[in-house]
Please model this.
Amino acid sequence: MNARAYWHTAGVILLNAAGNFALTVGMKRAPAAAGPVFALLQPFAAAGVVLLIAWMLLRLRLLQIADLSFVLPVTAVGYILNAAVGAALLGEHVTLTRWAGAFLITGGAALTSMTPARSGRKQEQRETAGTGREEGEPR
Amino acid sequence: MMQWLLVGAIVVCTACGDLLQSHGMRRGGARWKVPLSVVFLAGSFFSFTQLLRIADLSFAVPATAASLVLETLLARVVLKEHVDWRRWGGAALAAAGVALLAL
Model:
């Protein structure tokens, strides 16, 4: 894993936390009468949307240069970072059980990412056998 | 109560969106499912923004991880994927984490 991948990873994690932080501030400040769409015009909310779009694009770029099995567990740290941002910057009271929940979820995401990205599907076995029907499609 | 309803909407919309996207992008999959997945994912995003209005960020982001549980289940049942013990374990850990958020 080269330095570029690490910088991209750091960028992905930070952009996600920054985007969610700005979106939270924006949504809390948006007028109650504003609907779900107009609330996004609040400057912080709009900044949050822009940051989350940048996060998505940078994540796609990261997936081009790094393995998915690297990207998933590392970016799952975002669950903990978002809790930390809530506590440190938004003054949220994060209880011990909430911290434990965030750590368990990160552990769960990390465990999931240890599995192969592509599993042998029954549908592919059927295709190989020549039946051709897509599994899950109505008969 | 309202916050859990929104978490439910996020989880269902995300799971449906990802399921449709995964099915639509696969060989032999119906392509109309991809644009429909965008509708569900948009619903998930707007539900998330509404959740941020009434809930803490430190609750909202981890709570959305509940979608991992439903998606693992749907991947097994609908997409007929092979889900090994580590994936079930990961989903169970995420479920336990979300349950802790509810305490």
In short: The CA atoms of residues 8 and 62 of chain A lie 6 Å apart. Chain A has one domain: 3-128. Chain A has six helices and no strands.
